[in-house]
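Tutorial handout. Part one gives the primary structure; part two gives the three-dimensional structure as tokens.
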Amino acid sequence: SSRNDAPAEKVPAKIAARLRIEHRGPGKTVTLIEGLPRNRRFLEDVTRALKKSCGSGGRAGEEAIELQGDQRERVREILAAKGWRVKG
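Part two.
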């Protein structure tokens, strides 16, 4: 069933994000930012900012953001600067 008809989750004041990397095929690594609110506009805005800051491609999923490459260090700095709690 499609989740597109679900109401957008309110973005909490305190966000706790989880970072991890996945290896997808030879030489392909993606950084996943999980535990985010299910709010399309919010996810797309954060994805756009992270892609620009990291100089990498990526996309906003339903409840996670994927960035190409291992971007954990940079993402941790950016999200901490926003006042988010970052694990992983």
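Part three, for discussion. The mean pLDDT is 92. The radius of gyration is 13 Å.
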